[in-house]
């Protein structure tokens, strides 16, 4: 009954979703192209496919790792990847090129998902992390298509919300043949909302299995070579002002300090550029090499898919989404490069990972921009401390590798 009510409300909201997609198409325009795909109108497959779904960039990276491993063993697999956002789509294109087919994810209406199933012909769906769409799961189960939740995460806050709609949650959990949880706590939460224990496997977090990329020296912004650099990565609205205030405080004690500021969403690049200019700090933009200069105090990271390059030239990292109540972002990428990690207090999306990093001495939490500035100054002034902190962060990553092999092994059982 709850699914029918949900579907009725979704149908009422569908016109507003269309208006939203059209509105968002103006910034960035990538949203304009796939509107038909949102309603399941995709090219028809001649062969059965393996369907992967990832929301955005982080989930796409995990999906890429799995898909590469599968294609290395079975190059002829017909793989379709759906993403919710253009950033996820670009990540899939950059990571896999024409080895897979990409579509934007169909909305959760019965007719839409049935149309998508008919055209895409999936024999297996692998959902990354936590995307629980009632109609998707109902119609996939009705079509006898197995569904695996890989790298499964469920926060305590989300678990409590799902418990309030327990009948719908149990129905959704019943559609999965396996849920591959990142740790015991997540596995317990999935079982609490209706997953049976025989479907639950703790595999660890695939993101720990990230490859350590090789970069040419200081390629992201070569003119800062030798300067002390810190990065504010994946910032959200309301955080940029705090980051810039912190950088001004840092510069009072370390005048040659430099900041890389990377907004989470590309549609905010221009507004953040104006914000930087309003502070009086001199600015360069990664996308505009003619603006590059040694004396620029802030580099706006206004390109996509280059975060690892930005981390590589940074001495200290601060992970965004943690001053705003977003819940933080993945700290594994800077940690795998042996960078000291700083975070704000809101980290509920990555509690376990940050907990491990903080306990090991590879990360530290700051409560506000003043504490952030103070910590950055101390790490810039004591390079040995910063180096030791980065090594401890890397050790946490190394201890937790192995989830990718376990995940691929389970998926192969359903191919």
> What is the CA-atom radius of gyration, in angstroms?
22 Å
CATH class of the largest domain reads Alpha Beta
Number of strands: 14
* Number of helical elements: 16
Structure class: alpha/beta
Describe what you observe in this structure.
β13, α13 (351-360) and β14 (363-365) form a beta-alpha-beta unit. The model has no long low-confidence stretch (mean pLDDT 93). The chain has helices at residues 2-24, 57-73, 86-96, 110-120, 134-142, 156-163, 166-173, 184-192, 240-253, 269-279, 307-312, 332-336, 351-360, 369-381, 383-399, 403-412; strands at 49-54, 79-83, 101-104, 122-128, 147-152, 176-181, 200-202, 229-235, 258-263, 283-285, 298-300, 316-319, 341-343, 363-365. The protein is built from 16 helices and 14 strands. The strands form two sheets. A seven-stranded parallel beta sheet has the order 3-2-1-4-5-6-7, with helices on both faces. The protein has a seven-stranded parallel beta sheet with strand order 10-11-9-8-12-13-14. Helices cover 44% and strands 16% of the residues. It folds into two domains: 1-203, Rossmann fold; 229-400, Glycogen Phosphorylase B (Rossmann fold). The protein is of the alpha/beta class and 415 residues long. α2 packs parallel to α3 (86-96). It starts with a helix and ends with a helix.
């Amino acid at each position: 009954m709850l699914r029918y009510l949900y579907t009725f409300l979704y149908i009422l909201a569908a016109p507003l979703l269309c208006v939203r997609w059209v509105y968002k198409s103006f910034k960035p325009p990538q949203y304009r192209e796939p509107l038909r795909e949102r309603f399941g109108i995709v090219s028809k497959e001649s062969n059965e496919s393996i369907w992967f779904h990832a929301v955005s960039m982080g989930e796409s990276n995990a999906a890429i790792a799995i898909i590469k491993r599968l294609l290395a063993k079975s190059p002829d697999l017909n793989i379709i990847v759906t993403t919710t956002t253009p950033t996820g789509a670009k990540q899939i294109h950059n990571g896999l090129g024409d080895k897979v087919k990409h579509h934007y994810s169909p909305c959760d209406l019965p007719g839409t998902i049935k149309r998508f199933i008919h055209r895409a012909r999936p024999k297996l769906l692998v959902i990354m992390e936590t995307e629980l769409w009632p109609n998707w799961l109902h119609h996939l189960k009705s079509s006898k298509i197995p569904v695996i939740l890989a790298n499964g995460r469920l926060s305590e806050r989300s678990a409590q919300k799902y418990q309030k709609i327990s009948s719908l949650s149990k129905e959704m959990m019943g559609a999965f043949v396996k849920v591959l949880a990142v740790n015991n706590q997540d596995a317990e939460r999935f079982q609490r909302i209706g997953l049976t224990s025989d479907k639950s496997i703790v595999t660890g977090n695939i993101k720990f299995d990230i490859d350590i990329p090789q970069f040419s020296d200081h390629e992201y912004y070569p003119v800062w070579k030798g300067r002390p650099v810190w990065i504010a990565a994946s910032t959200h609205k309301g955080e940029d002002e705090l980051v810039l205030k912190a950088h001004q405080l840092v510069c009072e004690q370390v005048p040659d300090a430099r900041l890389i500021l990377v907004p989470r969403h590309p549609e905010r690049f221009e507004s953040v550029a104006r914000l930087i200019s309003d502070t009086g700090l001199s600015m360069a933009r990664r996308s505009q090499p003619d603006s590059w200069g040694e004396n620029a105090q802030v580099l706006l990271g206004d390109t996509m898919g280059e975060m690892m390059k930005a981390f590589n030239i940074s001495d200290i990292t601060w992970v965004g989404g943690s001053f705003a109540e977003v819940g933080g972002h993945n700290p594994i990428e800077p940690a795998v490069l042996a960078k000291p990690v700083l975070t704000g207090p809101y980290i509920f999306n990555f509690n376990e990972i940050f907990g491990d990093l903080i306990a090991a001495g590879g990360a530290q939490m700051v409560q506000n921009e003043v504490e952030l500035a103070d910590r950055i100054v101390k790490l810039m002034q004591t390079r040995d401390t910063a180096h030791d902190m980065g090594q401890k962060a890397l050790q946490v990553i190394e201890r937790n590798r192995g989830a990718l092999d376990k995940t691929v092994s389970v998926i192969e059982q359903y191919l």
